[in-house]
Recover the amino acids of this structure.
């Protein structure tokens, strides 16, 4: 473990809070494209965290993760999503089930829940120097799931899932100071393939229902 | 070349076969030749490796560290694994040569590359299963084996039959894996490691109830893959649906891999158990043997017939295994050794002759494009080699000397009958009764294969397909020829393989003390179990006797000197004999259908169509007879399960609203509740 005052640890902690901020902005986003841009920004923050972790936590292979995150999550996936939005949607607004104020309230509730749940774990492991990272990662995961539940369009659900993925990455980096390379690669690949498949399915949903509103899928029920 | 090098080389060659299939997909001929050549070379390596370990008895372990973190790729080849590797390699060699010819059927129709990739991966995964030394690796290869074989079953995906067979197969296979996985996890909780060595050391102090539970789970899990009745329903559907070379692999080898799993886990790792374990296996084995062959007997699809007969043979193999477990549970290591040797020998023999039969059936299908034997006939004149090979396989599987089936069935009888002298109480009678069941199923097997051979190859062709059939290419004949020669060799000279198999059996029942006795006493000419003077026979003597008898008969009848005179067959005065007048397969099996009426669950339907003119309503012009055989296990076992599942599902439908968001909400709520609960 490294000393508390290290600049890297400080940076990681603040950047993690930045990721939490990004996900709360996502809750407030009104346009689909904006949602994707915020996601890209959040991924950039994640890349920065991986960068600081690679030097600060002596997990040098994480530097490859930085490149991977930038290529896949900051550039690749947002590009694909923006193209999907361009080709598929006429109304480019996020259509929520739950209105903005209530969403925001729920999101803050989830943040509190995340901090509450993590409290004991932090007490258990005294060596852990990150004040916010674990709670933030859990909060990002929970809010990502919340986004998936309360937004109607297939694309918003993809973004929600990706946000959860970012939260998982954050947790993995700070908890384990970098997983073995195989697993990191596997996770990135997983995300990429997942997005490809979801993209194809979104096209199919559009073809079948003339819309990407997933609330219409219940007519499939046998 | 040491064991380690040949092990690595074998796997590398199989991987090369896989990749060459992938790269050369564009040109099917080159792809088929190159990939099959790699497979054959790998098989030679496997033969070398298994021969090395079986003859020296030196176990060898191999670790591939660091490939995936926390998962140790640990392999271990003792003589048990080597014996099953021998089975795999022998069949692989023959099948890879056969495939070079057989694949021609698929040139430019289907993707031959995919077939090559599938076969190589399939063999690789089976080798992985028998050599794995940790539960994790075992399961990885086990699942790869299931998935790859699934894709091979649905290779002819445009056929409805293949797809539905594949579905049932993968469903049953995964149910089996669930049982195996559960058993492994239970063992893991007890031993704290996924290593088989750790399982073995901790198995001694398992509580009795848990041990029994583990046995049941392993038996169900591996039994599904082995095709025991009543868990067999996938087997007669999936094995015939695959291309014939894959059918041979699945029926010849894959179900043996399941037997390997069963004996490795139950006899070696758990170290045997109470007597009822063996009893359960014997009962299930008897049921499998009889039902398997009964269904084979009324089947007219040649590949389905062979698949059902595999169920019978798995029954015979398990009879040996079960009897051995009964004996070793009461400390009778000698008879246990004999029974297990018999079971293992039959596993090897069944791989050879069932492989041979599937390959020759594949040849028949290859040149006639008909699987229903009612459409065949007269093929012995068009395809003499294939007919010879099929006959060899059929005689072996019926357990007639001088072929290999006789030796292993004879030993199985010896093992079972020994129970009368050696055991006390109820099992004194029980084991000989299993032997009686074995008698019944052997007799039925003979009837079944008389039908299969007679209707397919003799008399006149019954359809255009059969009339235009041609002998198959050289490579296919070569592949079948290897297996046919091996069937004869193991029937005439079983002494050479019995010694190593005896060692394998003594490793399994932990009877190291008895290695010196070696179970089977065999000098050059006679085989006798345990030197008990109970019974003995001389395979070479039988062979020579038969040879002399045949030669003598030919001489006495003067056949070599007679000129062949061709003449008309006398047709009772009817001018022309038509194929329609021939004996049919359905008619052949009709007496058995009548005798075993209650088991077959037959629905018969006779339809008489009278003459259309109103004046002659009582003159029947056309009579149609339809009979179909139902499967009592479908009706009394699977129907009930299906009903239960449907009943539960209709209740569950309340929460299935079809709204994705609601489903996500379920997950969300569950997550939060669990987070609170686990805090």
């Amino acid at each position: 473990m490294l000393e508390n005052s290290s600049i890297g640890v400080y940076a990681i902690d603040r950047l993690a809070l930045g990721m939490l901020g990004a996900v709360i902005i996502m809750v407030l986003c009104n346009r689909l494209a904006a949602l994707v841009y915020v996601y890209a920004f959040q991924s950039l923050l994640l890349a920065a965290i991986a960068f600081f972790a690679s030097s600060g936590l002596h997990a040098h292979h994480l530097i490859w993760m930085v490149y991977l995150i930038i290529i896949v999550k900051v550039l690749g996936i947002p590009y694909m999503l923006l193209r999907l939005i361009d080709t598929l949607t006429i109304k480019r607004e996020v259509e929520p089930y739950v209105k903005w104020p209530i969403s925001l309230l729920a999101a803050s509730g989830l943040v509190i829940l995340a901090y509450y749940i993590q409290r004991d774990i932090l007490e258990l492991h005294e060596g852990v120097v990150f004040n916010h990272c674990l709670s933030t990662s859990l909060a990002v995961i929970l809010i990502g799931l919340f986004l998936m539940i309360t937004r109607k369009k297939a694309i918003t659900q993809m973004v929600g899932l990706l946000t959860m993925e970012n939260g998982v990455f954050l947790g993995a980096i700070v908890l384990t100071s970098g997983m073995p390379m195989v697993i990191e690669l596997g996770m990135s690949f997983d995300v990429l393939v997942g997005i490809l498949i979801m993209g194809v399915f979104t096209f199919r949903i559009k073809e079948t229902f003339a819309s990407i509103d997933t609330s219409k899928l219940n007519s499939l029920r046998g | 070349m040491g064991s380690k090098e040949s092990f690595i080389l074998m796997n590398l060659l199989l991987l090369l076969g896989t990749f060459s299939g992938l790269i050369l997909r564009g040109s099917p001929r080159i792809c088929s030749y190159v990939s099959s050549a790699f497979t054959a070379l790998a098989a030679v390596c496997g033969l070398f490796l298994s021969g090395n370990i079986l003859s020296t008895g030196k176990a060898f372990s191999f670790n591939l560290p660091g490939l995936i973190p926390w998962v140790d790729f640990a392999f271990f080849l003792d003589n048990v694994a080597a014996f099953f590797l021998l089975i795999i390699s022998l069949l692989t060699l023959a099948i890879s040569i056969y495939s070079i010819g057989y694949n021609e059927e698929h040139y430019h129709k289907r993707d031959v590359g995919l077939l090559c990739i599938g076969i190589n991966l399939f063999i690789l995964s089976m080798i992985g299963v028998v050599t794995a030394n940790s539960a994790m690796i075992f399961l990885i290869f086990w699942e790869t084996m299931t998935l790859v074989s699934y894709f091979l079953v649905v290779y002819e995906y445009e056929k409805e039959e293949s797809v539905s067979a594949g579905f049932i197969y993968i469903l049953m296979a995964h149910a089996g894996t669930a049982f195996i996985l559960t058993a492994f996890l239970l063992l893991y909780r007890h031993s704290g490691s996924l290593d088989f060595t750790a399982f073995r050391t901790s198995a001694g102090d398992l509580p009795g109830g848990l041990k029994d539970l583990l046995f049941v789970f392993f038996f169900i899990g591996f039994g599904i893959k082995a095709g025991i009745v009543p868990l067999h329903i996938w087997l007669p559907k999936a094995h015939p649906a695959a291309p014939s070379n894959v059918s041979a692999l699945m029926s010849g080898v894959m179900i043996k891999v399941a037997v390997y799993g069963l004996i490795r886990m139950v006899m070696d790792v758990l170290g045997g158990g109470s007597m009822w374990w063996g009893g359960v296996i014997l009962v299930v084995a008897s049921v499998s043997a009889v039902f398997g062959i009964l269904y084979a007997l009324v089947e007219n699809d040649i590949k389905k017939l062979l698949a059902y007969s595999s169920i019978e043979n798995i029954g015979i193999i398990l009879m040996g295994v079960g009897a051995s477990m009964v004996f070793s549970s009461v400390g009778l290591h000698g008879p246990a050794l004999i029974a297990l040797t018999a079971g293992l020998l039959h596993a090897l023999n069944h791989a050879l002759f069932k492989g041979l039969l599937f390959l020759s059936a594949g040849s028949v299908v290859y040149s006639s494009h008909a699987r229903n034997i009612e459409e065949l006939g007269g093929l012995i004149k068009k395809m003499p080699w294939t007919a010879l090979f099929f006959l060899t396989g059929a005689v072996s599987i019926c357990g007639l000397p001088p072929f290999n089936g006789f030796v292993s069935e004879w030993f199985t009888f010896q093992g079972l009958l020994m129970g009368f002298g050696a055991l006390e109480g109820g099992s004194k009678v029980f084991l000989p009764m299993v032997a009686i069941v074995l008698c019944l199923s052997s007799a039925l097997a003979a009837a079944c294969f008389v039908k299969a051979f007679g209707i397919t190859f003799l008399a006149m062709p019954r359809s255009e397909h059969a009339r235009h059939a041609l002998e198959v290419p050289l490579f296919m004949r070569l592949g079948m020829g290897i297996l046919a020669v091996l069937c004869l060799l193991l029937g005439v000279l079983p002494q050479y393989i019995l010694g190593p198999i005896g060692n394998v059996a003594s490793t399994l029942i932990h009877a190291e003390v008895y290695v010196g006795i070696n179970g089977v006493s065999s000098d050059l000419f006679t085989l006798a179990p345990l030197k008990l003077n109970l019974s003995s026979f001389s395979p070479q003597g039988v062979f020579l006797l038969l040879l002399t008898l045949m030669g003598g008969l030919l001489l006495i009848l003067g056949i070599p000197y007679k000129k062949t005179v061709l003449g008309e067959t006398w047709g009772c005065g009817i001018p022309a004999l038509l194929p329609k007048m021939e004996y049919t397969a359905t008619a052949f099996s009709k007496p058995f259908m009548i005798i075993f009426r209650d088991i077959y669950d037959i629905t018969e339907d006779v339809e008489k169509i009278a003459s259309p003119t109103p004046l002659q309503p009582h003159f029947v012009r056309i009579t149609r007879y339809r009979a179909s055989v139902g499967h009592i296990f479908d009706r009394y076992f699977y129907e009930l399960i299906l009903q239960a599942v449907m009943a539960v599902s209709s209740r569950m439908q309340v929460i299935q609203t079809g709204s994705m968001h609601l489903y996500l909400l379920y997950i969300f709520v569950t997550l939060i509740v669990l987070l609170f609960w686990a805090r």
Observations:
- The CA atoms of residues 138 and 146 of chain A lie 12 Å apart.
- Helices of chain A lie at 7-28, 32-56, 62-88, 100-124, 133-150, 154-176, 181-209.
- The mean pLDDT of chain A is 82.
